[in-house]
């Protein structure tokens, strides 16, 4: 399962990060009660996906602040019933949000992980999130699986610099993939790019996308993200060719009614600075492995 959970911060200031907006006295008035409601909401989403066929073996997420959030989510929130372990590395994002991976040790035996730095600063650009790479063996088959979880640079402003930063992130991912040729690989994340975006040209030479590639009917709700009146696929799940025989050809977009507003759009936690109390500005994705 993949889920951009929209800004999950704890309520304490990290002296190394610009997290002032998400403090009780900050712009978003991020109080302990709002924090725990957010963790309850994430738990409810994953539990609802579990009703489709059991707890997801692994859940990739982004926009998570730190280890404290993950410990609270897996040990103190309702999700503790799933007995997830997690992988997380602190990255260079200025606000402090990172990618992480929840996994069930009864199904996936973690052997190692690393945080892959995108060299944005070296190229004179804003620092972006690291790419999380975890690997281990599927308990049932004892086969090795490599998992990449990512959150590419934002499209904010639509300027040339943001496009170049995403292309640099895509090149960094491809360099890591080239070291694992022939291996079973799962990649999931918020690419901040549609399937036809140029950043996918090198990626799709190495991986198979599980997101629809056909032209969208703009009047229909299609995608995982709704922005300026249009739906889009900027969240993606991809697999290596070696996994094609054991994976469904398409990822499922989760559209549970409780995730949506009366207008059928994602029920966000915030709309600008206004607290809405919802789940996320993105919808989750999941795939089934056979």
Question: How is the secondary structure organized here?
Answer:
Elements: E1 2-8, H1 32-50, E2 58-64, H2 67-75, E3 85-88, E4 98-103, E5 108-116, E6 131-138, E7 144-151, H3 160-178, E8 185-190, H4 200-203, E9 208-209, E10 225-227, E11 230-232, E12 235-239, E13 252-253, E14 270-271, E15 274-275, E16 285-286
Parallel strand pairs: 1-2, 7-8
Antiparallel strand pairs: 2-4, 3-4, 5-6, 6-7, 8-12, 9-12, 10-11, 13-16, 14-15
Description of the molecule:
Helices cover 18% and strands 26% of the residues. It is globular, with a radius of gyration of 18 Å. The chain has one domain (2-286): Deoxyribonuclease I, Chain A. It has four helices and 16 strands. By secondary structure, the protein is of the alpha+beta class. It starts with a strand and ends with a strand.
Quick one: how many beta strands?
A: 16
Helical residues, percent: 10-25%
Following the backbone from N to C, one meets helices and strands in this order, namely EHEHEEEEEHEHEEEEEEEE
* The CATH homology group name: Endonuclease/exonuclease/phosphatase
């Amino acid at each position: 399962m993949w889920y951009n959970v929209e800004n999950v911060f704890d309520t304490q200031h990290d002296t190394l990060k610009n997290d002032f907006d998400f403090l009780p006295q900050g712009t978003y008035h991020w109080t302990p009660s709002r924090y725990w409601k957010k963790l309850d909401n994430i738990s409810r989403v994953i539990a609802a996906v579990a009703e489709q066929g059991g707890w997801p073996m692994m859940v990739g997420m982004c926009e998570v602040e730190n280890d404290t959030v993950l410990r609270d989510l897996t040990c103190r929130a309702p999700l503790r019933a799933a007995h997830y372990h997690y992988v997380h590395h602190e990255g260079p994002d200025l606000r402090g949000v990172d990618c992480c991976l929840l996994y069930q040790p009864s199904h996936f035996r973690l052997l190692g992980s690393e945080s892959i730095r995108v060299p944005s600063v070296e190229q004179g650009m804003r620092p972006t999130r690291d790419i999380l790479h975890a690997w281990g063996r599927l308990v049932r088959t004892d086969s090795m699986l490599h998992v990449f979880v990512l959150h590419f640079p934002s499209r904010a402003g639509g300027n040339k610099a943001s496009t170049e930063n995403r292309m640099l992130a895509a090149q960094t991912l491809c360099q890591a993939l080239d070291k694992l040729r022939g291996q079973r690989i799962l990649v999931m994340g918020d690419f901040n790019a549609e399937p036809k975006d140029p950043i996918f040209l090198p990626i799709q030479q190495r991986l198979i996308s599980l997101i629809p590639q056909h032209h969208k009917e703009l009047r229909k709700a299609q995608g995982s993200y709704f922005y300026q009146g249009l739906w889009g696929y900027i969240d993606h799940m991809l697999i290596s060719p070696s996994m094609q025989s054991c994976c469904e050809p398409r990822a499922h977009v989760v559209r549970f009614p409780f995730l949506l507003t009366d207008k059928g759009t994602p029920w966000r936690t915030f709309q600008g600075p206004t607290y809405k109390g919802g789940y996320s500005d993105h919808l989750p994705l999941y795939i089934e492995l056979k």
